[in-house]
């Protein structure tokens, strides 16, 4: 059975043979939310709903993830996703949206801006993949043996998947939260796609970005869970030093899945950031 949150991406964009699921809600200045791996736009759903009173909020699933197509012949690496995001913004006819990105979404949004000429009004990076090294020990193990993991019995795959995802949360995940995160990866197509996207992970895509970060000239804010074991909090300070004028906020009691670990703190921080860069969003 399809998960109801995943089904809320009710529109589609065709791109080089791929079908990109997306949706928008709300009114006001454009705000684009980018997810990471192994997540989907569902992770941003409650935040999109909360921000829709002041923004037109766009959410989308990267190809190979969530409700988007998962054809085995289609590359899903960070290079492809960055190029796609730039074209998706053109499809949406967005000139300079605000962008909030998590995990892989950080590298994707940075590549779209720095390598494919996408323009943003502001950028908020939440526990992002952007600086080397990245990837947990399990991630590295899977990357080196993806063809073996793809053949795991469904029950064993589910157990490994749940254990892997559980490690991204500092406080622990409720059953419904875990289901939202694992749902896209449970059927035969999803299992193959899960290991395929890890197999195609490559630090060269972030290596290309690192020398370009000092070219960023838009308001940039960095939010990080203090207890992130997937991407350690020191990356927040390294990013702040690399991006001119960037600011940081470290959220205590939160791991990589800050959306679930500290939802109120994250929502408050995002609202505060957006109202600082978008006057129209300030409380009336």
From TrEMBL:
Gene3D superfamilies to which the protein is assigned, alphabetical: alpha/beta hydrolase
Statement: the UniProt record of this protein carries the keyword Hydrolase: yes
Annotated InterPro entries: AB_hydrolase_1, AB_hydrolase_fold, AB_hydrolase_sf
Pfam families given in the database record: Abhydrolase_6
Domain named AB hydrolase-1: residues: 31-267
An annotated GO BP: acylglycerol catabolic process
Gene Ontology terms, MF aspect: acyltransferase activity; monoacylglycerol lipase activity
Entry keyword annotation includes Hydrolase: yes
SUPFAM superfamilies (alphabetical): alpha/beta-Hydrolases (SSF53474)
GO cellular component: membrane
Record key words, sorted: Acyltransferase, Hydrolase, Transferase
Entries under PANTHER family matching the protein: HYDROLASE, PUTATIVE (AFU_ORTHOLOGUE AFUA_2G14860)-RELATED, MONOACYLGLYCEROL LIPASE
The name this protein goes by in its record: Hydrolase or acyltransferase of alpha/beta superfamily
Organism of this sequence: Actinoalloteichus hymeniacidonis
Lineage of producing organism: Bacteria, Bacillati, Actinomycetota, Actinomycetes, Pseudonocardiales
């Amino acid at each position: 059975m399809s998960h109801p949150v995943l089904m809320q991406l009710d529109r589609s964009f065709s791109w080089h043979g791929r079908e990109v699921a997306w949706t928008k809600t709300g009114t006001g200045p454009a705000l684009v939310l980018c997810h990471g791996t192994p997540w989907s736009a569902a992770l941003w759903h409650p935040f999109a709903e909360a921000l829709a009173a002041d923004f037109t909020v766009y959410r989308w699933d990267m190809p190979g993830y969530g409700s988007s197509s998962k054809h085995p012949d289609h590359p899903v690496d960070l290079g492809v996703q960055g190029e796609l995001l730039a074209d998706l913004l053109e499809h949406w006819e967005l000139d300079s949206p605000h962008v909030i990105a998590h995990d892989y979404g950080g590298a994707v949004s940075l590549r779209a801006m720095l390598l494919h000429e996408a323009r943003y009004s502001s950028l908020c990076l939440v526990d992002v993949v952007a600086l080397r090294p990245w990837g947990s020990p399990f991630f590295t193990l899977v990357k080196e043996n993806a063809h073996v993991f793809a053949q795991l019995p469904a029950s064993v795959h589910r157990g490994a998947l749940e254990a892997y995802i559980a490690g991204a949360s500092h406080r622990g995940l409720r059953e419904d939260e875990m289901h939202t995160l694992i749902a896209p990866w449970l059927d035969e197509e999803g299992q193959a796609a899960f290991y395929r996207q890890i197999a195609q992970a490559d630090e060269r895509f972030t290596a290309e970005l690192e020398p370009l970060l000092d070219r960023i000239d838009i308001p940039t804010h960095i939010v990080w869970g203090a207890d992130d074991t997937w991407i350690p909090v020191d990356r927040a300070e390294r990013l702040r030093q690399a991006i001119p004028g960037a600011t940081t906020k470290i959220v205590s009691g939160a791991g990589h899945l800050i959306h679930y670990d500290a939802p109120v703190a994250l929502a408050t921080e995002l609202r505060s950031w957006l109202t600082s860069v978008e006057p129209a969003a300030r409380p009336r």
